[in-house]
Amino acid sequence: MADQFHHQEKRNAFRLNASCPCIYTRFDEDGMPYDQRPSKTLDLSLEGVRLQTSFPVDLGEMLKITMALGENLITFRGQVVHVKRSADEGFNLGLSIKNIGKIDKIALTRYIYYFKSSKPTQ
Length: 122
Prior knowledge:
Helix content: 10-25%
CATH superfamily: predicted glycosyltransferase like domains
Structural class: mainly beta
Mean pLDDT: 86
Number of strands: 7
Number of helices: 1
Number of domains: 1
Order of helices and strands: EEEEEEEH
Strand content: over 45%
Largest sheet: 6 strands, antiparallel, barrel
Distance between the termini: 38 Å
């Protein structure tokens, strides 16, 4: 009998499928940055983001994300809540947003709701 995996959706916020370039920064035990890697978003919400990258990270790790949203460059800290091997090469990382500045949160909110409202209803 095949194993079955049941994933319960935990998000309360709208999730936008969007591919945006970003860079994540890793930190050592002393909080010093030591590694930066390119990635792109697969989807994002006001609570979290899913990234695709060629490089794995550790579950529970805190990352600094710098993301290009249209003309805005936003930065936030996120905790890795899942790491999965991608169907393509690389990894999909799920991050929960833990620390985002007020201006960056406004830019993220505007981006998500602009594209949510511009999609035709079916």
